[in-house]
Structure formats: structure tokens, C-alpha cells
Write a structure and sequence with these properties.
The chain is α/β, with parallel strands linked by helices. The chain is built from nine helices and seven strands, in the order E-H-E-H-E-H-E-H-E-H-H-E-H-H-H-E.
């Protein structure tokens, strides 16, 4: 799925920050953003994988930088925004980083590391760059609607609600939307085992699981000027799995 989305109205060279950029959906989003004309500033905890992403984007003719950042640490977030501002004010933000669903967390820890961390990142972005901020997205999950009895579904529902709060509070400057992936073939999901992946594919009306590039395409569209009147939505990208 090696496509680009330059026709959606992005200004060449505008900056997008992608959290959790070194793998999975974040990596696919960073690469598609670059192919669509944006400068990419990736944040992640994994330095080697982040360096590899920057190298790959650069070799493809794009512009990318990386910052090792723990999005649960306000001081680290402030430093990362300082670095991003050095290449130009970031007009776009992809809130993607968050703990895996099989991480052993309490409800409080899940809320802190899920919607809590995204709020830390977003509010610092708006405080610094609210005059130029155009749009942000939040990676939620269809788990936000399925109501499983664990911290993950509660955290993802909180992300959905927080995105809508941003959309309403700031009057579309920036616009804010959330994307809800279904079962998507990423390193995290692969680690859950083939049986789980096969079961999800069997239950999906499309008969397969998603690719990270398909989630990335939805994220980039919602960020883009082509989506200029879309604000506050929760968009399942799941092949119909919720059905």
C-alpha cells in the first residue's frame, strides 16, 4: 500500500508530530504523512526503531526527525515540543502512543497512560501553537464500544470522549477527531498469537484483519484540509467488525 495523499490540501513542508511513531499504526502514519508532503517529527520510546524510521523516510526523499519521548512525563513532553518547534510550528498532531492491551495495568494506570497522556501532549501543543494548530487525531479503538471488562476498553472510551471535548472546547481550531481501529496486523497484535488473529478475521464481514496503512489513511484524511468540516467524530476503521 505505497500511496500518498497530496491531493488533500496539505501545504508542502507543514509539520506533523506523530507519537508512537516507531512501529505499527504510528509508523505507517508517519510514512504516509511524509509521502503526502508533510515534515514528520516522530516521538517514541524506542530510539533504534525511531532512527530507522527517520532514515527510511529520508532515503525516500522526505523530511523526518525523531525524539525519544515518554508521553507520560510532562517535562519530556515540553522538551519534545521545544525540539519540534525548531523546524517550524507543528500544525498537525497524531496522538497515537499508548500502552498495549495486554499490559498489566489497573484502571487508574490505564486512564493515566491512555487519555491522560494524550491530554498532556495535546494541551501543551495547544498552549504553545494554538494560533497555527489545524487538526489532531487520537487513536482510540473499537474496544471503546465493546465494553470489555478491562482497563483497555475504559481507556479507549476515555480517548474517544477526550477527543470530542477538544473538538467542542476549541471551536475547530484545532479540529479533533478519533480513529477506532479494529484488529490490525501490527507487531503488537501479532504477539497475541495467530489463533486470536484468525478468529477476528473469521468474524469480520470482510474476512480479514486490517493493515496499519489502512488506519493511517483514515488518520491522514481526518488531519487534512479536505476534512475541514469534520470535527468531533469517532471513526471505526475495522472492516465492519463491530457489526
Amino acid at each position: 500500500m505505497d500511496y500518498e495523499m497530496r491531493g488533500l490540501g496539505f501545504r508542502e513542508g507543514d509539520v506533523v508530530v506523530v507519537t508512537g511513531a516507531a512501529s505499527g499504526i504510528g509508523r505507517a502514519t508517519a510514512k504516509l504523512a511524509s509521502r503526502s508532503g508533510l515534515k514528520v517529527w516522530g516521538w517514541d520510546l524506542t530510539a533504534d526503531a525511531l532512527d530507522a524510521l527517520v532514515k527510511e523516510i529520508t532515503e525516500e526523499g522526505g523530511q523526518a526527525h525523531g525524539t525519544v519521548c515518554n508521553v507520560n512525563d510532562p517535562a519530556a513532553i515540553a522538551r519534545a515540543w521545544d525540539e519540534a518547534d525548531a523546524v517550524g510550528p507543528p500544525r498537525y498532531l497524531v496522538n497515537n502512543a499508548g500502552p498495549a492491551s495486554n499490559t498489566p495495568l489497573t484502571y487508574i494506570e490505564g486512564l493515566t497512560q491512555g487519555p491522560g497522556s494524550m491530554a498532556l501532549v495535546t494541551e501543551e501543543w495547544i498552549k504553545r501553537f494554538g494560533d497555527v494548530a489545524e487538526a489532531c487525531t487520537f487513536t482510540s479503538s473499537i474496544a471503546a464500544q465493546r465494553g470489555a471488562a478491562n482497563w483497555y476498553s475504559v481507556a479507549k472510551a476515555g480517548i474517544k470522549a477526550y477527543a470530542r471535548n477538544v473538538a467542542k472546547t476549541h471551536g475547530g481550531k484545532p479540529r479533533a477527531n478519533s480513529v477506532a481501529p479494529g484488529v490490525t496486523i501490527t507487531p503488537r497484535v501479532i504477539s497475541f498469537g495467530q489463533e486470536m488473529m484468525d478468529s477476528a478475521a473469521d468474524r469480520n464481514p470482510m474476512g480479514r484483519n486490517g493493515q496499519p496503512e489502512e488506519i493511517a489513511a483514515a488518520i491522514i484524511f481526518l488531519l487534512s484540509p479536505a476534512a475541514s468540516y469534520i470535527n468531533g467524530i469517532y471513526l471505526p476503521v475495522d472492516g465492519g467488525l463491530l457489526l
